[in-house]
Amino acid sequence: MDRPAFGEWPLLSARVHGFTEPPVFEAAEVADGDGGEAPASCWRPPRPAQPGRIGELFRPGVRVTDGYHPEQTVVEPRRVGTVHVPSGLLAISGLFTHHENGPHITVPIPPGEYVLDEARVAYSYHCEWRDAEVDTTDPTAVRLLLSETSAASWEMALGADDDLRIFIEKQIAGFDTDGATGCFADAGSFESLLSLFERGLIDGEPDLHGYEDLTDGSMFIHRTWDTATGGELMAFATTGDGTYPVWLGRSEAGELVSVVVLIEGMPQVLPERDGATADL
Question: How far apart are CA 156 and CA 262, in angstroms?
């Protein structure tokens, strides 16, 4: 069959099929099914990366695995400190990358002081050096807690140039780091807080006011504060360089209740020992 002219495709051509009246098309009803996803043969638009069950990382007793250690158990989150955000604009950013346009991610929040938590898992492994089983605890995520209300859903925070409509499958947006370090900070005084961090950690200025090393062996934590504005910055370690997504937890009513950064991806949540699945 020769290629038809524009507007005369045979499939929809009344003339080719001999119809005396223009064909009428009706939407077919979808048969009742199990409510699952469409068959793999059906096309769907690409979906950006999904958050996973982030809330479980802050619920003691949940069993997870990082793919390397068969079983890890979530323990009580460790309260690292607080972050004062008087400007009402929270910055989440890398610290050893270019900041000509300011922090990588900003999120509007009510002005105030918020708790910073460290999610942790406990597990044991065989230490070849000691030739014995060793118990240890590792961090998995950091969370700025805006409310005691539990998050019912999670969404990816976007930068100024990010557009979910053009994301490819499992694409992420987030902050970039080439120094394995990120931070929560007051965006209104970000430049001065970043300068204090660099002067304290990199330049090693003695008796520097506005800089504090809070590292206690559990996690790399450094704090800076701007006496003029009251804004603060809390720096934390990631497990490497690259891009780290920022997840926004919202309540059933849509209120922002927490901001979370996974420092090494989302572990797989294991079934509870009684066979039931842990809550989302």
Answer: 12
Considering only 22-36, 58-72, 196-210, 222-236, which range has the smallest mean pLDDT? 22-36
- DSSP codes, 4-34: PPTT--GGG-HHHHT-SS-----PPPPPP--
The CB-side HSE value for 51 (13 A sphere, CA atoms) comes to 22
Q: Which residues contact residue 48 at a Cβ distance below 8 angstroms, ignoring those fewer than 6 apart? A: 156, 164, 167, 170, 171, 172, 173
pLDDT of 153 reads 95
pLDDT value for 14: 65
CA distance 187 to 247: 18
Q: How far apart are CA 115 and CA 107, in angstroms?
A: 16
Q: Are 260 and 116 in contact (CB under 8 A)?
A: no
Residues 103, 167, 238, 113, CA torsion sign: positive
Hey, what are 258's tokens? 């927490």
Q: CB 145: neighbour CB atoms within 10 A?
A: 19
Q: H/E element holding 221?
A: strand 221-225
Instruction: Tell me the CA distances in angstroms from 166 to 44, 52, 88, 274, one per residue in order.
Output: 14, 21, 30, 43
